[in-house]
Design goal:
38% of the residues lie in helices and 15% in strands. The protein is globular, with a radius of gyration of 16 Å. The chain is of the alpha/beta class.
Length: 237
């Protein structure tokens, strides 16, 4: 497990602008106490800020969103300990109710045991239930894994037909995204998959560092503060 937590402080001259960072953000609300009014406010804020999508719990579907704003929905969240059949059914129902993207959680324990074939089968079940053009992101909980395990689950996700590997739920006590994890994940999947950094991305500096490491999507709950550059973004989802 990497102990790296602090992004580099220097930014290249071609660092993405706040508007470009916004277009990489899944504006996220996954708190258990979230209400429909909270989600409606999330959608309105996402449209105002120009984020790529909103990311919500499946019980919040269907959503009324403006044209161009995508809807991402979590699956097997946050523990990943659901059976593959349950995850597949949840994903299929979310797609039926309007989800454009599914963010599923793997069985992290299986990854820690090196059961990568089981991880691949789990991802494959969800992929079959939510085929393209639905985008499938696989949450690997990278902070709870060592580097060898991160590589193994990324390869399993690619073999199962995923579109993204994603660092974290934002709920695990081990922590969220790190530059090290994002870089390792991108090195593993290459151009075959994209990488989403999520969990603890609170500042514009951190967002830019994750993108420089290879992330093309960011899971952020405090998007307004992050894009404003005031460093007060929400700590998690």
């Amino acid at each position: 497990m990497s102990t790296e937590q602090t992004p580099s402080t220097s930014q290249p001259a071609d660092a993405p602008t706040p508007a470009q960072v916004a277009r990489a953000i899944d504006h996220t609300l996954l708190k258990p106490e979230a209400t429909r009014a909270d989600v409606a406010a999330l959608v309105a804020e996402a449209a105002e800020l120009g984020t790529y999508s909103v990311c919500v719990s499946p019980s919040m579907l269907p959503l009324d969103v403006p044209a161009g704003l995508k809807v991402a929905v979590v699956c097997g969240f946050p523990s990943g300990k659901h059976t593959s059949a349950v995850k597949a059914a949840e994903a299929a129902e979310s797609v039926r109710l309007g989800a454009d993207e599914i963010d599923m959680v793997i069985d992290v324990g299986a990854a820690r045991e090196g059961r990568f074939e089981d991880v691949q089968a789990d991802v494959a079940a969800v992929r079959a239930a939510a085929p393209a053009p639905t985008v499938l992101k696989v949450i690997i909980e990278s902070a709870a894994l060592d580097d060898e395990q991160v590589v193994g689950v990324c390869r399993a996700s690619a073999a199962a037909g995923a579109d993204f590997v994603k660092t974290s739920t934002g709920f695990h006590l081990a922590g969220g995204a790190t530059e090290h994890a994002v870089r390792l994940m991108k090195q593993t999947v290459g151009d075959a998959l994209e990488v989403k950094a999520s969990g603890g991305v609170r500042t514009l500096e951190q967002a830019r560092a994750m993108m420089a490491a290879g992330a093309t999507r960011l899971g952020v709950s405090g998007s307004r503060a992050l894009l404003a550059g005031d460093g007060s973004g929400a700590a998690g989802y």
